[in-house]
Amino acid sequence: MRACRSCKNISDENICPVCKGTEFSDDYSGLLIVLDPENSILAEKLDTTEEGQYALKIR
Q1: Distances 10 to 22, 35 between C-alpha atoms, Å
Q2: Tens digit of pLDDT for each residue in 35-46?
Q3: Domain coverage including residue 45
Q4: CATH of residue 14
Q5: Residue 24 CB neighbour total at 10 angstroms
């Protein structure tokens, strides 16, 4: 699993399914699982409108 440097989405794919970025990092910490992005305060802080797994910090 790798975290996208642009949107922090965690994925196994070569292209980020959320922002279509290609820069990933293996060095991240924290995990946030967004189930309801419309009503999630944390999803708003991450500036995401997509369900999924997100890293809290990427190094």
Answers
A1: 12, 14
A2: 999 999 999 999
A3: 2-58
A4: 2.20.28.90
A5: 21
pLDDT single digits (tens) 1-47 = 999 999 999 999 999 999 999 999 999 999 999 999 999 999 999 99
Number of domains into which the chain is organized:
1
Exposed e or buried b per residue across 35-59, where buried means at least 16 C-beta atoms within 10 angstroms of its C-beta: eeeeebeebeebebeeebebbeebe
Place of tokens 């944390």: 42
d(CA 9, CA 12): 10
pLDDT at 1: 94
Phi, psi of 37 (to 5 degrees): -65, -25
Query: What is the model's pLDDT at position 20?
Result: 96
Beta strands in the chain (DSSP E): 2-4, 10-11, 24-25, 28-34, 52-58
